[in-house]
């Protein structure tokens, strides 16, 4: 088993690379010259070190950032809990009995624990937004294709986006500008027009605080329907499974030492049929059009980040307790829209969050909307996120 580079297992390797700007942790599925891209897996432990930086790492260094380490992750970025028997499970700093979330578990924990100013994660079906919510920090999945994936594992994905996790919106915005030089921060001059997506299956301990907070600021905010929302969640899983099987299935067939949960998921992923994939792509087209149509009338759409509070590590041993964690996040990987999650706490002090979704390419406006919400709705205003 690898020895983690930090006591809370947030980092698998400590580094000191770059300038004197913000301290950054980079998820260990992103190439950094001279280091093994371990992907949280024993299957890559003996891999040849990367010979060049991923383009996103080059952008960070060009922006003067200091890379302080490679962040731990759920193996192969193919899981939602962050539990990892090989590299260790990152410890959720504020709620240590609960999952850190996945797959960008180490990135979220490193930010929440103050080991870095912001972290880079990747998001294929909620893998930035979900651990950000679990650990009480902010996380953004940019518009698909906006930020280069060159030098990332998996090498090919129609869903995966590198993005940023941070403790506040100022640092999240700085992180976006560092990884994407075309990103120009914006400021709102009036309140944004928001539409609430009608969400089924939200636990009252999550939904009630969010609804009451939004009603105070937006008493007349309408509910809207995305007819293909549930289908898009399932379709996103089909597409992701197919693409992961294409990337890692041959390694599984050769007996690569994947963890039991990953081996089982990859074996199941290899059964995705051409007909299932074609149906998923039809749903992608339909759902994307539905989201675009709503966003022609609103500046952004809002949903809960998670349908329930993050489960405890013990409860997460039962897959039934984690299957729905990304039900409001994964659909927007399928459609490619930028999505950002704002952390909050419910009346019991447990982590909850609000997801906001913007128009494609309008990532800076989405960040501006998030800053507006955090400035005027008490539930989302900055608190000490270390206790």
TrEMBL record:
Amidase domain boundaries: 24-174, 254-367
Alphabetical list of Gene3D superfamilies matching this protein: Amidase signature (AS) domain (3.90.1300.10)
GO molecular function term, any single one: catalytic activity
Similarity section: Belongs to the amidase family.
A Pfam family hit: Amidase
Signal peptide (from-to): none
Protein name: Amidase
Domain of life: Bacteria
InterPro entries noted in UniProt: Amidase (IPR000120), Amidase_CS (IPR020556), Amidase_dom (IPR023631), AS_sf (IPR036928)
